[in-house]
């Protein structure tokens, strides 16, 4: 028994493990077993179940340790997405740093001297702030795959274009949800005081109480451990106390501005597919042999949207 | 505006920040403001709202980087808690290592050679396995502070003795919930195949689908960043691929076996107090100035139970 303990225990983490390994998942669809599991569903996906990242809405955050890839969803925050791309394109973040890593909460980067008018980095073409985009109108052309289990924070939840989202059908509004890996723009006390000069990514249990309080417009689709495993800051709110603790940003780039040969070719499982709907069901009711009890429900942020690397750029 | 942006943005993280800073929280109760917040509630707590850790149910996991402190709750898994203490006391874990760090999931430690019958560490007095303790009977003497917001995974949720727990009143059963920092015993496919030789701590979004599938019996109350910021393993399930990547365990100790002067004096906010009930409410409805929208609900694992350091051991 002992010999097989580790590999068998692995089944507990099957779902997440598969997502982590999806980059090297089988090219050849496997036959669908009688009892679908996350692994069997992913193995049986068709090429059309996946979509390539749009280079114009993909950001690279380059650190000494490697590259973090972020997918933007401008539909939920067009002004913020455009402004962050403008900041990226004028080199605003290059040479700035990650200044805050708060355990079970967020990683945040921007200008460590932002509070000092004499030292802070100048903004040339982009805007220092843009109006808040906490939610938007529900629209017919905005796809939505609902989660039937409900939610504690929103009247309705599901996925739009690969992003976890909440909706209020009565108010006809929708918004992105704070799940692990979500990208947002920090702000001050005033709703309109952000604009992308300070960006954060969730690295802990979903802080869903922030939904509709911050503008969200992206998520990390590759390299998240480069952020989540950073040393935690020991100052208030997880800010690094010493300048030398800050993690330098080599560069941020829009993928479209990087030579095609230097881009990471990634694909995301489409969330408007039967494959993704099957995957939700497989996570509501775990069929892997390891499970003794199946919850019969699943929470929004416990259904990560799979990402995989492809051999050649899919453009 | 820019100058104050960082400090104001801090309000977004007020709740968690306060928990992080509770170790140095004011000794003098502050006057209760008209609108209670997490900060004001903690500042107004009485000494009797807190309880000292029981040294006999406190474990120290000592790494080169520092000490992780774990509180055990034997009431939910007496056989596992006793066996882990027996393993600790025979020095089983000393010199073993953290072998698995899976992003947004778990850190796991034990015998990296556990699969090799010729090399694995011998167990002397403790048991290699003990029967599963996935849940237990609800009992009148087991305190329970209910969360009125409900839950997707359990008929009823709340807190027992400082631990997040689920309950099924119809079946008269209760169990601990997988929140950030929860300690459990890994197992193989058979329910009774664990026993504490492989321990794990949750370092990601609460994997509540594991509830009632694994025996849980503790939580990290200090030093969690020493685990959550470890480099992620790049092997399947987050196992480190190279032996030199493993993180050595200097020692595990029962606090009662450590000289009193060398113990960390920690106190946990009692979850059967009005202070904790006020804190739940303050997290359901955020009153800090930063918030523009208040959820009116909160999820079980989004109410961390505060821990603070005290100047002198409270025994």
General description of the model:
Two copies of one chain form a homodimer. Helices cover 16% and strands 24% of the residues of chain A. Chain A has 315 residues and is an alpha+beta fold. In chain A, the strands form three sheets. In chain A, strands 14-4-5-12-11-13-3-2-15 form a nine-stranded antiparallel sheet. In chain A, strands 6-10-9-8-7 form a five-stranded antiparallel sheet, with no helix packed on it. Chain A has a three-stranded antiparallel sheet with strand order 1-16-17. Chain A is globular and about 65 Å long. At the A-B interface, helix 1, helix 2 and helix 5 of A face helix 1 and helix 2 of B.
Largest interface: A-B, 83 and 83 residues
Q: What's the quaternary structure here?
A: homodimer
Q: Which sheet architecture does the biggest sheet of chain A show?
A: 9 strands, antiparallel
Q: What would the principal axes of the Cα set say about the shape of chain A?
A: globular
